[in-house]
Amino acid sequence: MEDAREVSLTDIHEVLSGTAATLRSLVPAAPDSALDFQEAPGAWTPMQVLCHVTDGEVTDWMPRLDLILSPGERRVFTPFDREAGFRVYAGWSAAPVLAEFERLRAANLARLRALDLQPRDLQRTGIHPELGVVTAAQLLACWATHDLAHVAQISRSLVRFFGAHVGPWRQYFSLLADR
Question: Residue 59 and residue 67: Cα distance in Å, rounded?
């Protein structure tokens, strides 16, 4: 499902800059029972998603971009442990994890702006352990897509948590149709 439209660095910055506020609008308003709600077997809870994206701010996006931009020929990414954040933030409540995400994201956005990436930088490559050669532009687009996907995941989970109680209105919600 490729689209010929370009995604600019400005577009990516806008998404990345808005994620913390979006999470801030969803997470604190939800009760703990909703944040711990698992919408299906094996699905992550909203709290697990929050821990995952927070850990990614430390161990995934900027370290990989730094590696791509580093000198040398072989720039192989360290595998990303998708569930490491569950352990790192175990025992934390949502508010401190969200505050940590906001702090880390602000620092990463400041670093990203300071890099003043140019078109030639965006074409530099690194090696993903499973996917092979990827460009900086692809990594940045993936970061924005990752944010949006996890915001949607948290939203969907909250819809299904609260939606379990809507009674006959269930028919009006496509996100509840398969429940």
Answer: 12
The residue range of the domain holding 143 is: 9-176
In a domain, 3, yes or no: no
Strands (E), 15-172: 125-128, 132-135
Q: Six-digit token pair at 72?
A: 């040398």
What is the number of structural domains in the chain?
1
- The residue type at 41: P
Place of tokens 């701010």: 57
Whether residue 114 is contained in a domain is answered as: yes
Residues 6+ apart with CB under 8 A from 118: none
Structure tokens at 116: 């003043």
Residue 97 falls in which region: left (phi positive, over 0), alpha (psi -120 to 50) or beta: alpha
Which CATH number fits the domain that encloses residue 161?
Answer: 1.20.120.450
Sequential pLDDT tens for the chain (179 residues): 565 578 899 999 999 999 999 999 999 999 999 999 999 999 999 999 999 999 999 999 999 999 999 998 778 999 999 999 999 999 999 999 999 999 999 999 999 999 999 999 999 999 999 999 999 999 999 999 999 999 999 999 999 999 999 999 999 999 998 65
